[in-house]
Amino acid sequence: MQELHIYDGVHALFANIGWERLLSVDFATCPLLTQEFLATLSEVNHEGSFSFHIFSTPHTIHVDQLCTFFHTPITSLSQPTPAFDVREFWYSITDLEFYDSTQSIQTSNVHTVLKIALKIICNIIYAHIETTKADKAELFLLWCMIIGSHCPHFGDTIIKSFHTVIALRTGGAIHYGGLIYVIAHSIMLQSPPWYTLFVGDSFRLTQQTLWAMHMLRTAPCRYVWMQGRFTYFNIPPPLRPRRAQQVRCPQSDRPSWSTQHPDCADATPISFS
């Protein structure tokens, strides 16, 4: 990102919601977020706690501890969600009056920094779904990153995403890891062996990785940004338990700026056109 002169813009967007450390997290060092964790994960209760099992031992922790683990701000779960008009926001970044959730932000007339920031955050939070579409939940995160006045609770957001994985992809039966597992291991399984996006404490998003993601190609004296290949980060859905004599089949499958959030001391509203 440094060589493409977009790192400062992407970093500023993440900093606006206090999630900038996600750009330097080595997601392969998250051993707790595995099969047993998701298989036993409970809903977050009114006190902000949730329970799970690790090595057959029950645990109960507060959702804020996930924020601490990922170095994101701890905010109150009762913090009101700001009013978000997805059509108005879509128009502000694309000049398109009609919003359709099946539209792709990657092929729309959207600033490159916004495209890259959205792709990164979606592959962290929503790695289990198609990330080239302009989903409302994804656009809400991007809107928060731009305005810098609302800091989504990372712990609560990611637990809800875990439950989406359980409900939509496996029917409650978890067999192969979870969201963070998908991010870390799918990169190792599907990427060329000579590089990885997450190395130590650095997030490598270079020209080479963007080429591999089908998001960038070079032309004489310019870059050409493309739609991208959303399956780059994804692995196939977990397989259902096998029954006797049963054959396993493959699955198919311009906003107004306001004051910055108190948890984001370095946040600055950003305008892209």
The average pLDDT is 64
Low-confidence stretches: 28-33, 170-204, 227-273
N-to-C CA distance: 19 Å
Main sheet: strands, sense, barrel:
2 strands, antiparallel
Q: What is the helix fraction of residues, given as a range?
A: 25-40%
Name the helix and strand elements from N-terminus to C-terminus, one letter apiece: HHEEHHHHHHEEHEE
Number of helices: 9
Radius of gyration of CA atoms, rounded to a whole number: 19 Å
* Largest sheet: spatial strand order: 1-2
Give the DSSP E fraction (strand runs of 2 or more residues): 5-15%
Total number of strands: 6
**What characteristic shape results from the CA principal axes?**
globular
Structural class call reads alpha+beta
Organism: Lactuca saligna (Willowleaf lettuce)
Protein name: Arabidopsis retrotransposon Orf1 C-terminal domain-containing protein
Structure description:
By secondary structure, the chain is of the alpha+beta class. 33% of the residues lie in helices and 9% in strands. It contains 9 helices and 6 strands. Strands 1-2 form a two-stranded antiparallel ribbon. Strands 3-4 form a two-stranded antiparallel sheet. Strand 5 and strand 6 form a beta hairpin. Helix 1 packs across helix 5, helix 1 crosses helix 6 and helix 5 crosses helix 6. The two termini are 19 Å apart. The C terminus is likely disordered.
